[in-house]
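Escalated from tier 1: pyridoxal-5'-phosphate holo job.
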Amino acid sequence: MNNTNKNLKNYSSKRLEKAPAYFFSELDQIIAKHREEGKDIIRLDIGSPDLPPHPSVMEKLYRSSLDPSSHGYQSHLGTKAYRQAWAKMYKKVFDVSLDPKKSFIPLTGTKEGIFHLHQACIDPGDVVLVPDPHYPTYLRGTQIAGGTPYFLPLRPENNYLPDLDAIPANIASKAKILWINYPNNPTGASAPYSFFEKAVEFAKRNNILICSDSAYTQVTFDNKPTTSIFQVPGAMEVAVEFNTLSKSHNMAGWRIGVLAGNHPILDTFLSLKSNIDSGQFLPIMEAGITALNIETKWIHERNQVYKKRRDLVLSYFKDMNLQIQIPEAAIYLWIPIPSGWKSKDFTNELLNKTAVSIAPGTIFGDQGEGFVRITLNKPLAILDQAMQKIIKWWENDK
Ligand SMILES: Cc1ncc(COP(=O)(O)O)c(C=O)c1O
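Tier 2 regenerated the structure:
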């Protein structure tokens, strides 16, 4: 969107100059252009599930929206029933007890909450410990709040876990937040329970808030949910958790999630949020409750669909002698590319030559150089078609 009027003031704030537009927003425009030219693009770039929510969830949205009393502003704390449904899920899935009265704040998607949490608690000079690679909003939230990111490299040789012992004491003393995200986007890695214990111990010792992003805890191929940070004794004192229905219940476009915990930061966050939005649409909360109550079998069956897709994509790389960690969860494959290529050149060239779009690793941080991310968000037949094109180009044409 270019305005050619040279007399316009610079309306961009200094804050925003530090943070370029979100990669996928720009990619949407590039892909729209390709499509206008008649190209049939297969998108395996963004992490948006292709499968629908459970039918009862859609039915609930419809029914609830027919009620004339559904359409007013809602409390920033959401409804009691909404918070109770999250408390019930935490008890059932993780055996964690959270108080439905005060331990949950509804979010219009966790991206919103993650961004705003930084605005609620980071001042210039504060350090945020950001894994590299990372979900981009940890960094953007930090930068726009004026904070300083300190990157924790996630390397294949460490199973994509950060080395908390390597954080210098002078950084730890200035750090306010430690981000952790397992199962991980973009690497697909999972973390053992002992890592969560270590993170809690580190946070207590250094008086740091852990923000645990648990977007993929229920998207697991062996169908065992992974760890909630709250399962670690004492974690409630130092941690909050971001949870979302986007991936666990195929509801990415609905914008529905939650910030959970007992930490005082929830009050600060609520006071910021009360100045920004006017609550969550009631029918979306009610459909969210239905989603949180659906039978586990539905989630398991959906997870097996992802597992088959994972295996199909991996089968294409099997003879290529690449060091690929086989993910046990989430919806991504993190693939090393041939040396000599920059990730962005690789994905651009791939898009131009094959009409398949995948994500360059560098949009998730500098450690993503040399990697690309493939999302498992297409039916097997389309994924198969995309992989044939990718591998043909990779091996012959590039
Ligand atoms: C790790 C992680 N956290 C948070 C989000 C944001 O999810 P939402 O805003 O849809 O709740 C995503 C989305 O891809 C993600 O991968």
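Residues 47, 109-111, 135, 181, 185, 213, 215, 244, 246, 252, 257 surround pyridoxal-5'-phosphate (CB under 6 Å).
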